[in-house]
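User: Hi! I'm working on a homework problem where we have to compare a predicted structure to a textbook description. Could you give me the structure for the chain below?
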Amino acid sequence: MLIADELGAWLHLLHSPGVGREAARRLLARFLSPQAAISAPVAALRDCVDAPTALALATPPDGHAKRLAATLAWCNAAPGRSVLVLGDAAYPAPLLHSPDPPLLLYLHGDPALLASPCLAIVGSRQPSAQGRDNAHHFAKDLAGRGWTIVSGLAAGVDGAAHEGALAADGRTIAVVGTGIDRIYPPSHRALAHRIAETGLLVSELCLGTPPLAANFPQRNRIIAGLSRGTLVVEAALRSGSLITARLASEAGREVLAIPGSILAAQSAGCHALIRQGA
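Assistant: Happy to help. Predicted structure tokens:
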């Protein structure tokens, strides 16, 4: 677990106005640590960011003290809660070698699962009964063979995949698109608690972050990046699961898809992936 000063420096860097993931990576490459970056002269910061961002880094961002206190309180409130940052020895190698690794992750559960062989199972939030059964059965069988099943805790296929892994007394990781202290959908609250007990919940988003649509595609890159492959169970042509499949392919990972009826819109995305070589 990071000490308070280190965590504070990371939160200062990542929440400063104008500092997105790319800018943060440039600053870390130049100054080697968030502490050094936020302490650097404005003139030196200008090598990496524009003038307004360099000036903003000189002082803690709005709400910094409250954010740091809330994060420390959350970590200390229950076992298995921690924060993992890029560069930590425990940072998972598959995610490190993905195109856009997150700089900070909130974890609740067993962090050792990040080093286990992972396979993502994703698909429609409104699957057919067959699609839901396929997700459950594939996850149960694969978890029983030693794979850690990674998904996004969403309704539909994601939930069925997590449930299937748990039914095999296997391992599962849920990468959420909210703050790790916010469960979405609310109907998966009990499932999230079960995952935290025997698996792992993961989020890169600040505590308290609500379910915003723009955050879920960003979440998908972590699902793909953690996993050696991504299995798409059921997906329409405009499904967010195809984003996960594309990100997996771009990261050099396997993409797999389960075919369905040629008349089912929910299988059209899977068929498109198969035509592309999945």
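For your comparison, note the following. Residues 99 and 216 are 17 Å apart (CA to CA). The mean pLDDT is 95. Good luck with the assignment!
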